[in-house]
Amino acid sequence: MADMIDRRIFVASAGAAALAPWSASAQSAWPAGRTIKITVPFPPAGATDVLGRIMADRFGAYWGTRVVVENKPGAGGNIGAEQVARAAPDGDNILIFSVGMATNPHLYQNMTYDPIKDFDPVSLIAMVPNILIAGKHTPYNTIQEFVAFAKANPGKVTYGSSGIGSSLHLAGELFNKLTGAKMQHVPYRGAALAIQDLLAGQIDVVLDNITSALPQARAGAVKGLAITTAKRSVHAPELTPIAEVVPGFDVTSWFALFVPRGTPRPIIDRMQQDVRKALDEPAVKEKMAALAADSVGSTPEELAALLKKETESWGQLIREAGIKAG
Fold it and tell me: What is the pTM of this model?
């Protein structure tokens, strides 16, 4: 019992020490001289990177300190995520991650961190729809025609994704499960390469992020068939939800902030409040609209519930489809 009491005293003292230089300025600026790092576990220029830089810019302004972005790509986001999981829980290390936080434990056999046990959730930043686009060489022009063709020709439709286990890959597998279409998956090292082959007629369809795919659909380079959300999006009202033809289909990419487990709650609360503050700024709203992203700004508890739900639902699909990424 004495050992347990001593340990509790140590943990409480450690938490107080982490808060000491921070709490005095909690309502104004972050302690001077500290550098806050937001780790993006993917290459630059993607949606995760763009959102991370938006948050870094606003946090730096609010906290009066330096906030930098570090891109640490590899292993579906696991390299960057592990780095943050092992960092000190003092508020100086933040991870921005997406659906991989929920799917990677089911895809990778040798995970060196636990997305739920090793992190504290901060806030869901945004939800970004995907859209189903088809090459101009294909015979279907609407989601109704596509579903009918795919079901009547199992195994004959090819779809590209940004890699095995990516959200684009899993969206295709969910479509297969709900329709029995048996589309053939063609993985690429990034969605841009998949789009290149789609334009060249080498593959038939891609379930891609709306940010990059919608401009090409509106320009007529590809056919925009449908959106992956359950309801129509204000960003692309012309696109029919797949769910109107395939009941139960609802896929949205999400992006959120996490910190190492044990980060003091006042720090987490300050971050969460400032996420909401940033998302309310007109300039940030404009940037989010350019990404076709729906701003959220959730509580830590709401993000925790989303992660648990996504982990369970995608985990079941991954097991059923026998998908392994590494």
Answer: 0.86
